[in-house]
Every structure is written in C-alpha cells, then in structure tokens.
Amino acid sequence: MKFDTLLFETRDRIAYVTLNRPERLNALNLALITDLQAAAKAIEADHDIRAVVLAAAGRGFCSGADLMGNDLVGEGQRSRGEVIGIDLREHFNPMVTAWYQLRVPVVVAVNGVAAGAGVSLALLGDIVLAGRSATFLQLFAPKLGLIPDLGSTFHLPRLVGSARAKGLALLGDALSAADAASWGLIWACVEDSALKGEAESIARRFATGPTQAFQRIKAMFNVELPRTLAEQLALEADAQVELGDTQDFAEGVQAFRSKRAPKFTGN
To answer: CATH no. for residue 80?
Structure first.
C-alpha cells in the first residue's frame, strides 16, 4: 500500500507506519492527516495484522501542525478560527479517533522532537518509546496562543497528573525522554541506537500474543471517566475556533514563519 506522506508495509503480522515528511520534520498537514486515517482504516480491515509500529523518517518524530502551509489560512467568508475548527472536526479529530480505537496494540517510536500535535500523535500509542535525545514540547499556548489539541488535554492529566500537565501546557518547556518516562508520560526511554529494535521487539511480542486479550485490555483502559476522548476533542475544537481568530494567534503564526519570538498583546 502506497501513500504520499507515509511509508506503509506489513511484515510478520505487524504493520509498520512511518511518517515521511522529513523535510518538514513530519509536520501534520491535511495530506498527512488523510494518509494517517487511511492507514488506520487499512489496519483495521486487515485481520492478519496483530500489532502496529508508528515511527518517523528523518531527525524528528513530528513538529506539530504545518504552519508553513496554507491549511490554516482563512478562506472566503470563513475566518482563520473557523477554518481551524473545520479542519479539526472533519479531518484531524477523526484521524485521532481512528488511531485511538484501533483494535490492535500500537507501539510508537519517538525520535528527535515531538512538538504540539506531534505529542498528541505519539500519545495515541499503547506503548510509547522515545530515544534518549528525544524531547516533548507543548508549544500551543506560549508560541501560538492556542490550547493543546488532538487529545492532549485528555491524555496529559491522565498520564502525568494535573500539576505537571498544566505546567507542560502553560510553560511549553522541553521535557526530555528520560523525564517523560519517569513522569509516566511514556513507557520507556531507550538509547537512540536501540529505539527501532526495541519498538519492533515489543511489536513482535504483541503479534505472537493473545490478540483478543490485548483488544479487551485496550477497550477497558480507553474508557475514561468523567469525560471521554470524543468529548474532549469536541471541547478542544470549540476552544481553537475562538482562539484561532485572536490577534495573538495571527502573531504566533507570523512569528513562526519569520523564525522570531512572538510579541503577544493579549488580544
């Protein structure tokens, strides 16, 4: 199976999905989101697949949403915020849900930077590994005047607790792979040279293990109260619609494209 922005292959009942926009640090644009959703659909339809490895080509896992493209630009009568809301509800959020609900275990191998929506994508894994040089960054607020989305406001407090989740979201400080593991954000930090092999090793354990038990475990753990992922995704989209129309977000995008620090006014 071929995709424009992904590498996809199956070996020994394992699907290997590799983000393949290395020139953009695998930033998420609509093409990549569409391919990720199609890959999830293909995995779900192939009952010979019993595990998935999600990794990335190049020097970084995913730098977040692609702000250098035109996906977030207002068009016609729609404002920038309205376009963001449409993109989240019609493209990004369905992709998140499709990967979160995959019946088979997903192993994510994070190399280099995972920023913004890249963190959200990584956290869709059931087992998340990171190379020692990897970093996790939540830059939505301090750099763009937005909130974390694609499920990060759902996953972060459940994984690391409210205090640390708020700190990550509000400050945007880099979290090392070692600290991410010690905090419980990910399963393990491994040496960079061992990342690929460790991810494949775990996937092979899943591919030869009790598939139905794994499916039931995923289903049991993915039922979270008091709010579900779908409800949280909807809340995130509503907030981004409003924040996407602020002057601060426009300034954040311009600053990002100009490679300078943003000058927020609070408007």
So the answer is: 3.90.226.10
